[in-house]
Amino acid sequence: MATQETTASKEKQKYTFICSRDTLDGAYPSLILALNAVRLGHEATLFYTFMGVNIVRKGYLAKLKFHPPGFMGAIPGMSTLATSMMKKQIEKANIPDVEDLLEMAQIEGARLVACKMTMEMMQIPESDLIEDVEIMNAEQYLKMASQCAINMFT
Q: N or C: more exposed end of the chain, with fewer CB within 10 A?
């Protein structure tokens, strides 16, 4: 019995991570989880929908900001200040910036997928996406996700 459990736990599993926000705190969780999943020998797909689709648009990653929650986020200039502080903390903690994480995820085999409905709704042409991003509609995503051990909205 223990041998079967050990064998089963070592089998390659499939995971999906849905990202719907184009902010630093929206981008990092899905990228870190997907990167760690592939490093553990599993398949990982990042599904970018709504504003999250901007993460896989050419030239957008440098524009990501951190928006403080609550009334602090409504104060003019607070987002810029909070973003600067967050980036300093990320660097101090020796965490790669989001551009490097995305590149690592791609190189190491994470699959990047943009939501077809979002692209149509926001009138984003496929040519606006970074290299090697697939486009999938909701039905295609659900069929893929039904085969996954983990589907996580980050």
A: N
